[in-house]
Structure formats: structure tokens, C-alpha cells
Amino acid sequence: GNLPIDVRSCRETFKFADDGTVLIIGSQTECERAMSKLLRYTENWCKLWHLLVNCDKDKTEVIVIQPKGADDSSTLPRLFLGGAEITYTHSSKVLGVYLDENLDFERRSTYMLLKCWFAWNKLSKGTCRTEGTTSSALALRFKTVVLTKILYAAP
After folding, report:
1. Number of helices (H), then strands (E), in the chain
2. Residue-level pLDDT, tens digit, the chain, 155 residues
3. pTM for this structure?
4. Of 34, 27, 40, which Cα lies nearest the Cα of 9?
5. How many Cβ atoms from other residues are within 10 Å of residue 135's Cβ?
6. How far is CA 134 from CA 56, 127, 145, in A?
7. CB of 116 within 8 A of CB of 143?
8. For residue 112, what is the enclosing H or E element?
9. Any idea what the Cα angle at residue 39 is, between residues 71 and 65, rounded to 5°?
10. What SS3 class is residue 1?
11. Could you give the CA distance from residue 151 to residue 131 in angstroms, rounded to a whole number?
12. Among 28, 89, 70, which residue's Cα sits nearest to residue 36?
């Protein structure tokens, strides 16, 4: 079945293999209403197809991203899917990209820097000016291994 029309109008869905991400945009009241309907819809769809959603931490979670200066003192509603409570979190890894409630990407930058450093270390091991891989071959390896890591999910 299709999503309810009032939920379709304020959300975006991103899917990849067995992962999915739903983005709901609106006021807190609109988001709570849409999320509630979306969870009911998902629960009914899962029952129909005899599926279970893994609601463990790091598997199914909610991040609330608000504009700077927004009042974040209001209590967030408890969310359930299939009887299991969904966790609110400050950051999450979605398809290899860390998102956080402040959208500062510091965690992703640190993570990518480490991945690139380890990749470069592995690539350049045993190479120096006089022996090992040529500089052009090393540059090609850098572009295909390290640069692709840096540019993955870049805006």
C-alpha cells in the first residue's frame, strides 16, 4: 500500500539494499504526527509481510535536527514500532556517513581522516624515492583509494 497522503507530503525516503532512512520536515507537531502515522503504517506493512524491524540501538533510531536557537526543552514523544521502543540519539551512521543533531560532521571528518591515514600508510609502505612503486603509480593509487574515501558522500 501507499503511504498516507499527509505523511508523503512532508517526508523523503532514502533506501539502499536493506537500509532505509526517512527524513521528516516540519514543525515539531507536524513531525510527531507524521512519524506516528509512518510508524503505524510501517508496523501494519510488516505484519502483512511477516517481517520484524530490528529496533535495537544503532539499527532503528531517531535524530531530531532543529534550527539553531530553537527551543529544545520540549519533551519528545516515546516512539514504538512493533512494541519495541525506538531510541533517540544525537548522532547516527547512515550508509557510512555520520549525521548528528548539529550537522557539524566533526565525527565523520575524524573517522575519514583515520581511514585515509591508514589507507595511505598501507599504500606507501615500502616505497621511497629510489625503490618501490613509481610516483605516478602511487598517485593513481592515492586517487583511487584515498581520494574516493574523502569524496564519498561529499556535497
Report:
1. 5, 7
2. 566 656 666 667 766 667 777 878 778 888 888 888 888 888 888 899 898 888 888 788 888 887 777 776 678 888 998 889 998 888 887 777 777 787 777 777 888 888 888 888 888 776 776 777 777 888 888 888 888 877 776 66
3. 0.62
4. 34
5. 10
6. 48, 8, 16
7. no
8. helix 106-124
9. 25
10. coil
11. 30
12. 28
Q: How far is CA 77 from CA 30, 32, 35, 47, 132, in A?
A: 13, 8, 10, 23, 60
Amino acid at position 39, single letter: L
The sign of the torsion formed by the CA atoms of 107, 13, 39, 49 equals negative
Q: Which residue type occupies 57?
A: K
DSSP helix/strand/coil, 44: helix
Q: Which residues contact 111 (CB under 8 A, 6 or more apart)?
A: 98
CA 26/CA 24 separation, integer angstroms = 7
Question: Sign of torsion, CA 140 142 148 151?
Answer: negative
pLDDT of residue 7: 61
